[in-house]
Structure formats: C-alpha cells, structure tokens
Design goal:
Layout: E1 7-14, E2 17-24, H1 29-42, E3 53-57, H2 63-80, E4 83-87, H3 89-94, E5 103-111, E6 114-117, E7 120-121, E8 124-125, E9 130-132, H4 134-142, E10 147-150, E11 163-165, H5 174-188, H6 204-212
Parallel strand pairs: 3-4, 5-10, 10-11
Antiparallel strand pairs: 1-2, 5-6, 6-9, 7-8
Helix pairs in contact: 1-2
Amino acid sequence: METSGSVLTVALGSRGHCIELIINNEFNHAQSLMPAVASAFEQSTIRAEDLDIVACSAGPGSFTGLRIGMATAKGIVMGASCHLKVLPTLDLLAAGREDWPGAVVPIIDARKKRVYTTAFQNGQRIRDYQDIALDKFLGPLTKEFAILATGPNADLAEGYNRVTIDRLAGYGRGAAMITAARNAYEKNGPDPLNTGPVYLRPSDAEIGLSIRI
C-alpha cells in the first residue's frame, strides 16, 4: 500500500501475478483504502489468511496519509497473522527504474517551496533523503548525471537541463513495489509492529506546539 501522496496505490501479488488498483483521490485515503484492499481480494483467489507479507510506505510524504496506510497495514497483519514490511517511500517511487543509465530522482512536493527527494543509480541510493529546494538538489546533480525525475510530483523538474520526466510516475508500479517488499523482507526480515512513519520534518501541528511552548 502506497499512501504517501494524493495517488493511492494498492497491489496484491502472488507467484508472479499482480493486481493493482490506482486511485487519484486527492488524499481521501481514509475513505478509499480499505475498499481498495477489499476490491483487490475480490478480484483474486487470495484470502487475507493467505498473506505472507503486508507492506506499506514509511515516508516521507503526507503525514496523515502515512499514518492511515501504516495503521491499516498493521491491522491486516494482526488479523492475518502475517509479517509487516515498511519501505521508504522514495525507494518505492524509484523501484522499477533501475535500468535508467543516469540517476533516478523521485520527487514529492513537500510544500513551502521544497521537496522530499533523493537519488538512485543502478538501484542503489547515492544521496541522503532530503527536505530541500528542488533547484538546490538538482543543480549539482545534473552536472554529474542525466536525470529521470519520477514520483507523484516529477513534473516539478520540468525545464531543468538534462532532466527527463517519467510520464508514468506513480502508475503501474505494483509489481515493482511487491518485488521491493519481498527483497527487503528476505534481506532484513519483518519489521516490528511498533514501527512508525519516517518524517524529514516536524508536522505543522508539532511546529505550532513548539512555538506555544
């Protein structure tokens, strides 16, 4: 389940087959996520009790979206007695683009004229996760690599030199997400149920509280 942005993705896979639902619901994940999960099961022969792994995005991204996705994933894990795997959102957004000859840069609009981003080359992360102005990040990177900008807000990189926009960004990624979850599970095992979202900045509510204090 990828719930970090306005586009909700739910994918269900088994033995190389994948059912994927993509809903551009403008952050109405609380209303859309469970019906999407139920629909994926209805379109398959898989039942909840058959699940081995439930994976969700860890962040960065929408604070509310991440909490909804993670709470739902944990609920399914507890009900189905299976394993939880929490994956960095930016890694998920770059999944399936490992063959790009330069650097793959997933982009999430963080508002306030900043983005959440990083960079990958041949499937390996080559920059830290950052909350940064896009020009400050892309400027130096384009001097080293041809860039594929991907993710839900890839179009923010439109017009930059040596940058190609992934027009399918955020879509058709279910199989890549499932593969990434399986690989992460086989490498590091399951995540504990007390795992929380990854934030690169405090929420507005946290900022407001610190100001009042």
